[in-house]
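pls design
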């Protein structure tokens, strides 16, 4: 971590400690937009760190943005930072500027004709009701198009994820302005999926780290039979297993940060699959260590674990990515398998 990234991490820690309290997360899950948090992240340039200044971003490296996502996930920040970041990158490639209002990504079934009439729908659009715009990919007569549309110009049906965050259904049938339609490569939907999987992996790594920290702290504070439960061998073993899983997830996320610019498919697949595997192990252990207290909505452990359950399935669950990994390695042939595996290191 360089000096600038350490500054970003320290700044985020202070901001999120003050503005992303458990009470604020609960309020967001009850339908209250965390506007003050978003405004602060926007004004400090953290909402679009890593996006070129010419596109309305703050400049810097892509790793800066991924660090923001990682740290925000540690606090369960209820704002669409990942979607806004992806939208910013896609619009920057087209020479367009992303606005201050949050922008989300829709992955669905959309078509656009030569008169720029856009039609189609998408489910599970993150934070759609709280965003100003949506960026999506649509099939055109001359290839794939990248489109941006105001949320107000869509029909929106509210929905919620298991984490209590908006995952809305949107449908659209409207003519777009030419300034909001861009030529995109035929791989645009796959690129969006890779970006989504990469950002979710980084977010899961951050939330897993926080879950481990909370479990360690609780085990030291909770007493049973006259001593803290952290002294019991069974609890120590569970924490050690968690620590190993979190370390593996952190390493996987770091590899994704290094290869995000090229959207290396294998690195992202391995990262998403590995962090997804860790979610199952760590959330079970964390709730077991916390006991009955950890299952209550009053305890902020659930803010992390419910988001982890949601994120592991978004942009492909681990089994989907494991299948891709297997196909990639098998394609090289048995004689090259060992060399292919060791090259990944």
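designed seq:
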């Amino acid at each position: 971590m360089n000096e600038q990234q350490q500054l970003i991490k320290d700044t985020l820690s202070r901001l999120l400690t003050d503005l992303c309290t458990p009470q604020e997360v609960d309020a967001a899950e009850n339908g209250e937009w965390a506007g003050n948090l978003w405004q602060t992240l926007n004004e400090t340039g953290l909402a679009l760190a890593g996006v070129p200044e010419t596109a309305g971003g703050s400049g810097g490296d892509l790793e800066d943005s991924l660090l923001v996502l990682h740290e925000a996930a540690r606090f369960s920040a209820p704002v669409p930072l990942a979607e806004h970041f992806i939208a910013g990158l896609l619009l920057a490639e087209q020479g367009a500027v992303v606005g201050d209002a949050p922008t989300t990504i829709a992955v669905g079934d959309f078509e656009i004709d030569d008169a720029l009439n856009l039609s189609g729908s998408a489910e599970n659009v993150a934070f759609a009701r709280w965003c100003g715009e949506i960026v999506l990919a649509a099939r055109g007569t001359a290839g794939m198009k990248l489109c941006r549309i105001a949320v107000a110009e869509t029909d929106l049906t509210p929905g919620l994820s298991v984490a209590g965050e908006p995952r809305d259904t949107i449908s659209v049938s409207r003519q777009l302005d030419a300034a909001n339609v861009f030529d995109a490569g035929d791989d645009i939907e796959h690129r969006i999926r890779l970006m989504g999987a990469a950002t979710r992996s980084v977010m899961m790594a951050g939330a897993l780290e926080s879950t481990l920290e909370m479990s360690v702290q609780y085990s030291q504070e909770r007493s049973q039979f006259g001593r803290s439960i952290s002294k019991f061998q069974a609890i120590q073993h569970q924490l050690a297993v968690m620590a190993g899983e979190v370390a593996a997830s952190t390493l996987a996320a770091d590899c994704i940060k290094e290869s995000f610019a090229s959207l290396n498919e294998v690195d992202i697949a391995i990262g998403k699959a590995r962090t997804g595997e860790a979610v199952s192990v760590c959330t079970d252990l964390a709730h077991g260590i916390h006991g009955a207290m950890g299952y209550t909505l009053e305890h902020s452990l659930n803010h992390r674990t419910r988001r982890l359950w949601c994120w592991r399935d978004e942009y492909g669950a681990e089994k989907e990515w494991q299948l891709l990994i297997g196909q990639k390695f098998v394609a090289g042939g048995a004689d090259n398998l060992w060399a292919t595996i060791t090259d990944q290191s």
